[in-house]
Amino acid sequence: MIHKFSVRSAGVAEPDIRELGRSWELDDLEVWRDYYVEFEGAPDPAALTDVAAVLGDQLDVEVSVDQPLEPGAVQVAYKRGVVDNESDSIITVCGLLGVKARAGKVATTYRSESPKLRDLVVSTRFNATIEEVHDAEPQYDTLVPQGHYEPAAQHDLRGLDDAALAELGVAGGRNLSLAQMKHVQHVQVTLGDEYVTDVLLEALDARWSDHCAHTTWKSLGSLLGRLVQAAKDVDNSNVLSMFHDNAGVWDFYDGHAIAIKAETHNGPSAISGYFGQLTKLGGVLRDILGTGLSADPIGSFEYTAVGEPEAPAPIAGRPDARRLAGETIRAIKEYGNTFGVPMMSSRMTFHPAYRAKPFALGGSIGLLPVSAAQRGTPRPGDFVVLIGGLTGNEGIHGASASSAGATMDTAAVQIGAPLEQVKFRKALIELREEGCMSALTDVGGAGLNSAVGEIGEACGVWINTALVPLKTAALPMWRILLSESQERMLLAVPPEHQERARKILDKHMVRSTVIGRFADTGRYHVFHAPDLTEEALIASAPDTVPAHQGETGFDVAYDLLDIEVERVEVGAPPRPSGVPEWPSLAPAELAGLLEQVVSDAEVASQHYADSQYDSTVQGNTFYGPHYGTAQPVRTAYWAGTPVAGSPAAAVLNTAFNPWMFDADPVAATRQMFCSAIAGQVLAGVAVHDICMCDNFYTPHLSENWREWLVGMVDELAALVRHFGVPLISGKDSSAGSVHTDEGLVSVPPAVFLTALGKVPHHDDLLREQWTAPDNVLVRIGLSTSSPVGTVAARKLDLPGGALDDLALSDVDGYLAALAAHRNLFRSGARIGSGGVAGVLAQGVLASGTGVRLESATTESLFAEHRVGAVVEVAQSDVGKLPAELNPVVLGTLVPGAGIQLDGTDLFTPAARDGWLNSFTARIA
Amino acid sequence: MKPTVNVLYLPGTNCQEETVKAFAAAGATPRLRFAADLLSGAERLDDADILCIPGGFSFGDHLGAGAVAGALLRSHLADQFEACRTRPLIGICNGFQIAVRGGCFGKVGLKVNSSGTFRNDEHVRHVVEEDNDSPWLTGLAGQTLEFPCAHGEGRFHPDAEGAAYRVALRYEKESNPDGSFDNIAGITSLDGLSFGLMDHPERAVDREVRLAFFENGVRAAR
């Protein structure tokens, strides 16, 4: 029986509701939280009262029971196929109260007398992908998503011609090419089977997808192999693991190591900023958990690029950039804060090329012992143990109704469930410490199929999909295998540790199920046998598949699952030429330009977003993500001290500027790489102690996209070899072109770089806050004076052209001088977007100190010398700065809080206001 | 013999490690108490000198921050929790929300921040109340302590009748991050044994600030 409990704050509405009412101009807005609970049988009235008491257990909260939706009210609820995260907690509370519940569901009801209410709700608080709108009380017969088992479809490919094979390859939402279908035909013939099943077709469709197999990169000549080979050639002794695990692993100090990984969820984030960004952060945290024999996340970072907030979405029905921005912040806040990992760096960019498909990048670093840094290897006989959340009919082929049928509840996306992941986070560390796992991996894209298929490849594996715990009543075998339900991990547990592992997982309240075994067969074997119970499986002999009455999805040797990718040859990309000149501006005009530049989202405070992300949880944040005694300003790097009792610090910074990649992706790659290294060295890290993580996001339909991609990869490989700074982790997304209502929209070919460094003592780190009046500010570093790609050039509407070409020998000289003379610096800030002017403005805001410039031009203020810094030096030390630093005196720190030039304060009140509020004004 | 501290570890708790470190550095022997073990009877909540309910998002903040944990304390663990309240008890952030729901401070509420959303600030300044003789505050009266704030539902709101608390901390003027009534950042029970605050001293970079409350609690339990 289903009962409804409706909750809201009595009296004055809560601030978030008042704010919503203000923004909708509805003074009488009420928002109710509706909890539907499906009890087992009919609960007695006292039990309903008890549940209501828990829900109303807050000051000034009112609860009504079984109150139907009033006329005029609008309710937004998840579709039945979308399982609410709170369902488990509702069941738990009912259990604590001694009443049994089967499922729960949460909905939100909006009430107002205004006729505008429905339109406002639908346009701003409703996502048709996963939700439904109710104008009258919904009638639920059950809250459990419905589904049923279907026997595997059988296809005899032996006699099929090309047309029939091609048709079957794309049937039901699959994306298998003719060449791939011919390989499946070959598999069938080799096996000598009468048919292949849809389970095999679906499994191979996922295995051979670009997401899993990186076919685009392979087709262009083993691009990943080029980066890996470069890193191997460098032979940096800090590398413990690179590119063959869920994250790269970098040696830290005293037997500890740090894992690093970043990945993107661009496609899902275009459909729903909220759900895409939730799973982005959840997914990358799970990558860290699944690295080696499990690392514990100690920091996260995120970057999001969307279109201009004022522009409409280029595809009707899709969320616009403003909504994506708001949903992004909500998602990052909810997942990261709940998981309990400090936000190291977050940034949002507004760039028109990302209006169709945003750049949604999430990253994390994690701590683990060196002894657990290597990817584990399952042994034959180990149990396949699935832990974490339930498996639902989620994320499969976009969960189209046509492929699911009318009697199967589906969900295009799953709501990220951080609670599940928090629960198994510490359980995994305990399992690792107790030696209970021989290997593990996360369950992410392509679901169990990818996880089981990959981890089993070391020896062989079989699983019984009937043992997989489901959210739904039942599911066909292939859907269980392909479900992209998040918050699940797959463990290889030796039989002798199975009982201990179960106890640890139970203690952490983590759901776990033995679903199969690793085997000494070299085969990937999937079957569905309801008659083979978990208990029988555990009790069975380790070297044979127990007898069962189920049906086989497939049983194929791994070496039959590999497929060659056709090679495409490309030439060199066309490089731009010509550099536009900076205009000459008078002081008043410089002040005007400064206001525009510091108000640009690339420079302006994003405090509205940052202040919603927990940056201090775990208590190890030493520096960043903000500094400033007068005003919080974003730091150029983050440092944390993750090992208890140790002063050693991990240092993280990033480098990305899409406007530079617009101009010349290869030159931009070089500048960004050098900028990240220079930032690390400025902070105090030795070049040898820096590694990087790369995240390519490139188009696949724009002109010369292949040439640019290959050019960037080769440039990156050359940079790795030159500096000895290896890439140890990365990911490629090659689907950055989208057909929209406006035509084709493509992102620029680009790579986001994240640098991870280490120092033995945090006292060695250089801070950004100015320390004392009369000290001198000096620009150091390489000159990259081209206006191309700068914020100021966009404000001045300067024409395009080439980026500066950096000579790597000059970079070497600068880095060596930087490391040797850091003792002369009282503070130092890396130059980035906004150039010297951006550094000065933020320095003034952070320290409450002013600066008097000796002179200034448009170029000296606004050129973005990205492999450079503004350092604070005592007057007596200015002469000690060597020529290799290329020092240029800017001015002197003075009492007050302005940027003085010839008696004019360039940093006007309007500029300060723009820096502080412009970002918020555009998205909030 | 070092005083013992039971640190309640619920599904969704995420500040247990820094809290354990702080108590250990303050001279106590902290140990985690898992909800599953408490429910099964394998362990007890009240077998230590101090109870600490650390921060996090217990049960995902589902059904309201601290709601499920509060129900747990008031149902299966009611007797043990009552026993804990006769000794030093500290609730931090989500732990404060749970302690409020557990009835430690009478009718008071912790509501959605006045900004309507989560608020993170690395450097919030708190002034220790002069006339509260709680053992958690010994020797700190009038001092200003800077430590991080990170919460979404911390706006303190007492009921006109039925509240049973004493002010322990106030946000420094102009720095109230959540809109709490009268700038109240932390409270104690009337007997001073239970102490609740939304912000996180266990995360402070300054060691002295980080340990101030914990050392007092441990001293009181010796």
Provide the fold topology.
The complex is a heterodimer of chains A (924) and B (222).
Chain A: E1 2-9, H1 15-24, E2 30-39, H2 45-55, E3 61-65, E4 74-78, H3 86-96, E5 101-111, H4 117-124, E6 131-134, E7 154-155, H5 162-169, H6 178-191, E8 196-197, H7 198-207, H8 210-213, H9 215-219, H10 223-234, E9 239-241, E10 248-251, E11 256-264, H11 266-271, H12 273-289, E12 296-306, H13 321-339, E13 343-350, E14 359-369, E15 383-388, H14 401-404, H15 418-433, E16 439-443, H16 447-456, E17 461-464, H17 477-482, E18 488-493, H18 498-507, E19 512-518, E20 523-528, H19 534-539, E21 551-557, H20 587-598, H21 607-610, E22 621-623, E23 626-627, E24 633-634, E25 638-640, E26 649-655, H22 658-663, H23 665-683, E27 691-697, H24 705-723, E28 727-733, E29 737-740, E30 743-746, E31 750-759, E32 776-781, H25 791-796, H26 808-820, E33 825-830, H27 835-847, E34 850-853, H28 858-862, E35 868-873, E36 888-894, E37 899-901, E38 904-905, H29 909-923
Parallel strand pairs in A: 12-13, 17-20, 27-28, 34-37
Antiparallel strand pairs in A: 1-2, 1-3, 2-5, 4-5, 4-6, 7-8, 9-10, 10-11, 11-14, 12-14, 15-18, 15-19, 16-18, 17-19, 20-21, 22-25, 23-24, 25-26, 26-31, 27-31, 29-30, 32-35, 32-36, 33-35, 34-36, 37-38
Helix pairs in contact in A: 5-6, 10-24, 12-13, 13-15, 15-18, 20-29, 23-24, 23-26
Chain B: E1 4-9, H1 16-25, E2 29-34, H2 35-40, E3 50-53, H3 67-74, H4 78-84, E4 89-92, H5 94-101, E5 106-111, E6 119-128, E7 144-151, E8 155-163, E9 165-171, E10 184-189, E11 194-197, H6 207-221
Parallel strand pairs in B: 1-2, 1-3, 3-4, 4-11
Antiparallel strand pairs in B: 5-8, 6-7, 6-9, 9-10, 10-11
Main attributes?
heterodimer, A: 924 residues, alpha+beta, seven-stranded mixed beta sheet, B: 222 residues, alpha/beta, nine-stranded mixed beta sheet, two-stranded antiparallel sheet, 6 helices, 11 strands, 24% helix, 32% strand, globular
